[in-house]
Specification:
homodimer; alpha/beta; six-stranded antiparallel sheet; 14 helices; Aspartokinase (chains A, B); transferase (chains A, B)
Chain lengths: ~450, ~450
Amino acid sequence: MKKVVKFGGSSLASARQFKKVGDIIRADKTRRYVVPSAPGKRNSKDEKVTDMLYTCYEAASTGGAYKKILERIKERYQEIIDGLDLNLNLDHEFDTIEQNFVKGIGRDYAASRGEYLNGIVMANYLGYEFIDSAEVIFFDENGNFESELTNKELSERLEHVERAVIPGFYGSKHDGTIKTFSRGGSDVTGSIVARAIHADLYENWTDVSGFLVADPRIVEDPAVIETITYKELRELSYMGAGVLHEDAIFPVRREGIPINIRNTNKPEDKGTLIVESTCRKPHYTITGIAGKKGFCAINIEKAMMNAEVGFGRKVLQVFEKYGISFEHMPSGIDTMTIMVHQSEFEEYEQSVIAGIHRAVEPDSVELEADLALIAVVGRGMKATRGTAGRIFSALAHARVNVKMIDQGSSELNIIIGVKNADFETAIKAIYDIFILAEI
Amino acid sequence: MKKVVKFGGSSLASARQFKKVGDIIRADKTRRYVVPSAPGKRNSKDEKVTDMLYTCYEAASTGGAYKKILERIKERYQEIIDGLDLNLNLDHEFDTIEQNFVKGIGRDYAASRGEYLNGIVMANYLGYEFIDSAEVIFFDENGNFESELTNKELSERLEHVERAVIPGFYGSKHDGTIKTFSRGGSDVTGSIVARAIHADLYENWTDVSGFLVADPRIVEDPAVIETITYKELRELSYMGAGVLHEDAIFPVRREGIPINIRNTNKPEDKGTLIVESTCRKPHYTITGIAGKKGFCAINIEKAMMNAEVGFGRKVLQVFEKYGISFEHMPSGIDTMTIMVHQSEFEEYEQSVIAGIHRAVEPDSVELEADLALIAVVGRGMKATRGTAGRIFSALAHARVNVKMIDQGSSELNIIIGVKNADFETAIKAIYDIFILAEI
């Protein structure tokens, strides 16, 4: 049994947080590979170390005053080292960093030092081996992550290392230049490590007790999703329910390794388990609700539309010409609706309408703006009759007018279009009927 | 006030039926232009005159024995003439017909004689002027109906004719050859006449008291639709609720002339009024339910599908290549379902799947056959919240699993996919909730 445990910035923001992390790791001997982020905010007014590093580098590399901020970064680490009673001195590391900053070695290098230093502190605290990610995670000369090479090197390196700390967020190009993943990329590092060691579980420790069924800004204290499949997660995260870095999913998914989202501040909570597939029945019929505002509907009418082979293709081609991707395309017999992002569409609005007229000679083209799309997602929906009935009854009861419905045969989700103004009301109504009423 | 009245074959199958028609026409002086079909069946074992004419012509034109069947055709008309006590002799017309049949003048000519002779009888019975449609309805040399020329000639001819009988179903090419519309084409003639005289109403008299909310083979004694818009009718008729010839709609629709479907055997029934648009609130929330079996769903899955501009277009292009028109295309985030007619799709099934793989490299393509589509149509749905909720609650209650949902912003219809086996149950359930429960 081997687990990879990744800790986010808020889990490592202070000595106090480090101690929680230490307790978590020591509580389970299989937590053998640790991927730390850089220290995050200790409170809402605090600064993240990564941001401080960027500021410091900006100044140092352009000949500006950087000593003060560098000192504050040092203090952040010193506070952790002192608080943990460690016998560790980072002076040498900071000297190297300062020299490199003044040389202008690169922003990615600067950004990565937060994880690098935190990795050294963590390894010292746990008594684990420290492995610099620059030695095991590789990017090609264009900055693209080299997944297969990394996997091979990392597997070999970790094969005989019982316990190790591998800092998140960065790796290196073949010339030694440091390169980072995009922001939040420590999630990706954890996933890459989990794949390389064939982990049984990838634990991703954050400051939330897992994914929530609905947005807490809309629904008060929403329930936590116990188990979610990758597919469900993708459907929800597309609609704006983001917690996990998207690229973090692929390395573990291909190996069938589950991800467990946990809360460092509430280690007793089970969090959310993300799996490839599961027989486990979900607690509620739906797994989650997510949505986005700012869509526009283009309604096309033409008598006998259905008899025209190629009608739909020609319409989509017009949108494609202007680089506009359509979200949904529900159709009646003589009517067709194309849902697009208003922001993408606005600039080309008139060109698209003219293009549709040229392409298919419709009887009419009408626009409706300020619409929102809501995705109700759940693998349990296929097995439960009446899900759609419950959703639309709840919406009717909440006086929400349904502008669009789209449900394909996968039966994994129902997409509902409503007015922007009804967005929050609709999500609350759906949440209440499935989670609070629990029917 | 001017009305065009068209009578179908069963309304004119016997002297008894003719008398009903006579009473109807005489009851309203504005019923000035009459379009008769050929005599239809008097009972379920009877033959239609048009079919007898085809048989007779087949024999006569190929040197076979035709006298007996020609005699039976004569008897059909003689029964009507005698039953109406008319002073009318069709010997001359039948001599001409016999000569032309033996000459092999054409199947369309043969078929058209049923209406032609019935027109003469009708004109004599009513004391209206008889106008041979060959003189006023025109086709070009390729057999395409010449709408503008016909409208001009017919308008001029009828301008000074107070009351006339114009037989349905046929016209002529410029060389005088008789050409018919497709079967059921008397509906079209009535519509053309209504347009030419700027009728206030086009009454289409049949043997049913209007369009029904649902198929009477599925729902027992369904309610009659009082008022339906052309758009609603088109949505329903496409799905198989056919009563009126489709081409019959266009001539009157462009002039805003309503069509009234009436029952010759129950003239007291108001029938169904077909209109361009109406402020009149429908009696029920939904106007009608129709559907068809025999669809197939092609489910395409691909991670990040939504991010690919052109994905939908490329998929549709594959279907287009094989001449397959898609009916609906509901989509999730990473999933897309294409609904097609199983009969159109089967032959090219494997080629289409291969084509999709080549075009968009999906993660998976799955087929689900034996599905039915149901269209719930109604202009009242937009104004009534909760329509969708009622539909899907009713289906859940009836234990019907919903495989697909499609509703665009026109809100004129909701399309529902179910298994073929659930088709009748689903239609009954929807009918019951809206019409019987009347909620």
